[in-house]
Automatic annotation (TrEMBL):
Membrane topology term: Multi-pass membrane protein
Active site: D139, D441
Name this protein carries in UniProt: Cellulose synthase-like protein G2
Native organism taxonomy: Eukaryota, Viridiplantae, Streptophyta, Embryophyta, Tracheophyta
One MF annotation (Gene Ontology) recorded for this entry: cellulose synthase (UDP-forming) activity
Regions that span the bilayer: 21-40, 52-71, 641-662, 674-695, 707-725
Record organism: Psophocarpus tetragonolobus (Winged bean)
Pfam families per UniProt: Cellulose_synt
GO CC list: endomembrane system; membrane
Length: 728
C-alpha cells in the first residue's frame, strides 16, 4: 500500500473561474480601447479633434498599462493552495539536518536585542536539537553583536528547555513576554512559577545587552571572526541537548566589494559546510523571527515528499509583519504579493525567493554539480581552492567535527570567510546566492527556476515568521527604490524574463517574472495620466470619447473592471474597503516617485554612472512616527525628492480642475471633456491626504511649508506659461 502523502495541493477552482472570466472581459475591453486609439491615427488630420502629441502620450500610457496588466494575469491563471501533514513525517532520528542562516549588518539600525530574539526563536524551532544549527552572520563586525550572541547562548540554555517543557507556540522571547494572552502551557503545574523565573533571566539578558559598552558599532575593515558556542553545563538548568550556534563575521576590506547580503550568505554556506553541512538551509533576515516552531517540519513535508522532492529547490513562507496598522497606509505588508501572487506562481513552477523565511536545499545552490564531475581542477575553478570545502560537496561527507571548536581553531573556516577566497571563482555567478543584483533573492530564485528547479509556497493560517515592516514614508522610499531598481535592472539585462526566461521556463511563469521586473514601469503611465489629460482639459483638447459616443462605455467599463477586480481581491484576502482605497493611494504615490527613481537608478547603474547600493532599512522604532502610523496618517517628513513631485502633481490637478470647470461652464462642452474632468477629480480624491498634509494638518508629519510653497508656486508659474502658449 502506498503511504499517505505528506502534502497535497488544491487548485482554487472558484477563484480560477472568476479570474479567467475577468481576463476575458477585461481583455476585450482593452482591445477596444486600443482599437479606438489606433483608428484615430488613421483619421485624416483635418477631421481630428485633438492634437497628436498628447493623444500619443495617452495612447502610450494605455499600452504600458495593458502590457503590465497582461503580465499580471499569469499570477491569476492557476492559483493553488496547499495542505501539509507533519504528523506523517518519519521519526525524528530519520529527519535531515537543517542549518539556519541569519544575517545582520548594522547594530545601529538593527537593534541587537531584536536580532538575538530572532536567533533565540530559531534555536527553539520544533526540530531535533542535534539536527539544528544556527549561524549568525554579522556584517557589521560589531563587538556588541558578538556579546549579544554569547549572552543569547547562555539564555537559550534555559529558554529552550522551558519552550519544550510547556510546548510553547510562541518561542520568540520578546513576543512571548509581551503577548496579551498566555501560551498553551498555562494549565500545567509549575508553569507560572517557571515563567516568572525565566522572565527574570530574560530581563537580566536584556540588561546585559543594554549596558554593554561598545568601542565601535560598525566596521568595514576587520579580519574574519568565527565563534562556535560551546555546550556547557549551567548550574540549575536541565541539561538539554542544544543546537549548534555559530557567530560569523566575515573579513571586510574597504577595497573589496562584499556583495551585501548575498556575500554574507555565501560565506555562511561555506563556513557551515565545514561544521554541520546540513542538506537544508533556512534563511532569515535578522528582523524576521520564527513565530511558530513548526515551520521546519512543514517544510520537510515538501522536501521529503518523493513526488516533488527531486526538483524542489526551496519552500517559501510568506513574509508577514507584526507591526502593521489596521488599514496599512503604506501597504508594507505587500498584500498582493504574499497572498495572491505567490499562490499563483505556486500553481505554475513555484514562487520566487522572498529573501527570508525559506527552506532551501543546499545542493541547489551549488550549480550544476553533476556536470563538473570529479575533476579537481574544474571543481576548484567553480568553488575556490579549499580542498576541505570540495570534500564537503560529496554526498556522504560528514565533517569529523563534533564540537565545532576544532575547525574554528584550524584555519579553514577563516580561509573560507576571507575576502580573497572568491576571487576567480564562480561564487555569486553559478554558485551560491547571486551577486548580479541588489535583489539577490529574486535573481537567485529566478536562476534556480531557469535551471529546472521548482519551489512551493507554504502559507499556513498561523504566520510561521513575523517581521517588522517599514512604517514611515522615508523607509518605504529607501526600501522600494532599492527593490524597484534591482527588479527593473533584471528586466533589462541578460536575465530578461521575456528572452532568457522564456527559453527556459514556461510562458506563464516567465510572464510572472516579467511582471516582477517591469511593474516599476508604472511610473511612465502614471506620470502621463496625472498631467496630460489635465493640461488638455485646461486648454480644451479632448482626449477621450464623448459621453454620447459608444466608446464611452468601453472606457468606463475598463476603468471600473480594474477597480472592482482589485476591490474583490482585497476583500478575499481579508482587507477592508479602506485598505482598498489605501492601496490605490500608495500605488499612485509610489508610482510617481519610487518607481521612477528605481527605474532611473537602474538605468544609471547600467551606464555605469552609479554603483549598486544596499542601505539596510531602519528597524528602530520612532515613537512619534509610530503614533502617526497607527492613526493612519501619512508621515510627510520624508525626503524632498519624494514630497515635491506629489505636491506638484496635486497642484496641477487642482488648478486644471478649477480651470477646466470654468471652461466647461463657459463653453458648455461637458460631453467632450467629461472623462478628463472625471480623471482629475478621481486623482484629487484618491490623493486627498496630500491636500490634508499641505493645508489642514498641524502635526509633525505635515508637508513642510519650505517644500510646499516653492513647489506650488513654481508649478503655478509653469501652468500659466503653458496656458498662455495654448491660447496662442
Ligand atoms: O550588506 C548587507 C546588507 C543587508 N544585510 C542583511 O540583509 C537583510 C535584509 O535587509 P533589510 O535592510 O531588512 O532589507 P529589506 O528591504 O527589509 O529586505 C528585503 O529585501 C531584500 C532584497 O532587497 C531581501 O534580501 C530581504 O530578504 C527582504 O526582506 C537584513 O537581515 C540585513 O541585516 C546584510 O547581511 N548585509
Ligand atoms: Mn527587512
Amino acid at each position: 500500500m502506498e503511504s499517505l502523502p505528506l502534502s497535497t495541493a488544491h487548485v482554487q477552482n472558484h477563484l480560477l473561474i472568476m479570474n479567467r472570466l475577468h481576463m476575458l472581459l477585461h481583455s476585450i475591453a482593452i482591445t477596444l480601447v486600443l482599437y479606438y486609439r489606433v483608428s484615430f491615427l488613421f483619421q485624416p488630420s483635418e477631421t481630428r479633434e485633438s492634437n497628436l502629441l498628447p493623444w500619443l502620450l495617452v495612447f502610450a500610457s494605455e499600452l504600458i498599462l495593458s502590457f503590465i496588466w497582461i503580465l499580471d494575469q499569469a499570477f491569476r491563471w492557476r492559483p493553488i493552495s496547499r495542505s501539509v501533514f507533519p504528523e506523517r513525517l518519519p521519526d525524528d532520528d530519520k529527519l535531515p539536518a537543517i542549518d539556519v542562516f541569519i544575517c545582520t549588518a548594522d547594530p545601529t539600525k538593527e537593534p541587537t536585542l531584536d536580532v538575538m530574539n530572532t536567533v533565540l526563536s530559531a534555536i527553539a524551532l520544533d526540530y531535533p536539537p542535534h539536527k539544528l544549527n544556527v549561524y549568525l552572520s554579522d556584517d557589521g563586525g560589531s563587538s556588541l553583536t558578538l556579546h549579544g550572541v554569547r549572552e543569547a547562548w547562555k539564555f537559550a540554555q534555559r529558554w529552550l528547555p522551558f519552550c519544550t517543557k510547556y510546548k510553547l507556540k510562541n518561542r520568540c522571547p520578546k513576543a512571548y513576554f509581551s503577548a496579551l494572552e498566555d501560551d498553551d502551557g498555562h494549565f500545567a503545574r509549575n508553569y507560572i512559577e517557571d515563567k516568572l523565573k525565566i522572565k527574570e533571566k530574560y530581563e537580566a539578558f536584556k540588561e546585559e545587552i543594554k549596558t554593554f559598552r561598545i568601542d565601535k558599532a560598525f566596521s568595514r575593515d576587520h579580519p574574519s571572526l568565527i565563534e562556535v558556542m560551546q555546550e556547557n553545563i549551567i548550574e540549575g538548568a536541565d541539561n538539554v541537548k542544544m543546537p549548534l550556534l555559530v557567530y560569523v563575521s566575515r573579513e571586510k576590506k574597504p577595497s573589496h566589494h562584499h556583495h551585501f547580503k548575498a556575500g554574507a550568505l555565501n560565506v555562511l554556506l561555506r563556513v557551515s559546510s565545514m561544521m554541520s553541512n546540513s542538506p537544508y538551509i533556512l534563511v532569515l533576515d535578522c528582523d524576521m523571527f520564527c513565530n511558530d516552531p513548526t515551520s521546519a517540519r512543514y517544510a520537510m513535508c515538501f522536501h521529503l515528499d518523493p513526488k516533488i522532492s527531486s526538483s524542489l529547490a526551496f519552500v517559501q513562507f510568506p513574509q508577514t509583519f507584526y507591526n502593521i496598522s489596521k488599514n496599512d497606509i503604506y501597504d508594507s505588508q505587500l498584500r498582493s504579493l504574499f497572498t495572491l501572487q505567490w499562490q499563483g506562481m505556486d500553481g505554475l513552477e513555484g514562487p520566487v525567493i522572498s529573501g527570508t523565511g525559506f527552506y532551501i536545499k543546499r545542493v541547489s545552490l551549488y550549480g550544476n554539480l553533476a556536470s563538473k564531475g570529479t575533476d579537481m581542477l574544474q571543481l576548484k575553478e567553480s568553488f575556490g581552492s579549499s580542498n576541505e570545502f570540495i570534500r564537503s560537496l560529496s554526498q556522504n561527507y560528514t565533517s569529523d567535527l563534533v564540537s565545532g571548536q576544532k575547525y574554528a581553531l584550524l584555519g579553514e573556516p577563516h580561509f573560507l570567510a576571507s575576502c580573497n577566497y572568491e576571487i576567480g571563482t564562480k561564487w555569486g555567478q553559478e554558485v551560491g546566492f547571486s551577486y548580479d543584483s541588489v535583489v539577490e533573492d529574486y535573481l537567485t530564485g529566478y536562476i534556480l527556476n531557469c535551471n529546472g528547479w521548482t519551489s512551493v509556497f507554504c502559507d499556513p493560517s498561523r504566520p510561521q515568521f513575523l517581521g517588522s515592516a517599514t512604517t514611515n514614508l522615508n523607509d518605504v522610499i529607501i526600501q522600494s527604490t532599492r527593490w524597484y531598481s534591482g527588479l527593473f535592472e533584471n528586466g533589462t539585462n541578460r536575465y530578461c524574463p521575456l528572452t532568457y526566461g522564456l527559453s527556459r521556463i514556461s510562458l506563464p511563469q516567465s510572464l510572472c517574472f516579467a511582471w516582477l521586473t517591469y511593474f516599476p514601469l508604472y511610473c511612465l503611465p502614471l506620470w502621463c495620466l496625472a498631467t496630460i489629460p489635465q493640461l488638455c482639459l485646461l486648454n480644451g483638447i479632448p482626449l477621450y470619447p464623448k459621453i454620447s459616443d459608444p466608446f464611452f462605455t468601453v472606457f468606463s467599463f475598463t476603468f471600473l473592471s480594474a477597480l472592482l477586480k482589485h476591490l474583490f481581491e482585497v476583500h478575499i484576502t481579508g482587507g477592508t474597503l479602506q485598505k482598498w482605497i489605501n492601496e490605490q493611494r500608495i500605488w499612485m504615490m509610489k508610482s510617481v516617485t519610487c518607481h521612477l527613481y528605481g527605474c532611473l537608478d537602474a538605468l544609471l547603474n547600467k551606464i555605469g554612472i552609479r554603483e549598486a547600493r544596499f542601505f539596510p532599512t531602519n528597524k528602530l522604532e520612532d515613537v512619534e512616527q509610530t503614533v502617526l502610523y497607527q492613526m493612519d496618517k501619512y508621515d510627510f517628513q520624508a525626503s524632498n525628492i519624494f514630497v515635491a513631485p506629489m505636491v506638484a502633481l496635486i497642484t496641477v490637478n487642482i488648478s486644471c480642475f478649477i480651470g477646466g470647470v470654468y471652461r466647461v461652464l463657459m463653453m458648455g462642452d461637458c460631453d467632450k471633456m467629461f472623462i478628463q474632468l472625471f480623471i482629475t477629480v478621481f486623482i484629487i480624491t484618491v490623493n486627498y491626504p496630500i491636500i490634508e498634509g499641505l493645508l489642514i494638518r498641524k502635526d509633525k508629519g505635515r508637508i513642510s511649508k519650505l517644500v510646499a510653497i516653492p513647489v506650488t508656486l513654481a508649478t503655478l508659474v509653469l501652468l500659466s506659461v503653458f496656458k498662455l502658449l495654448g491660447n496662442v
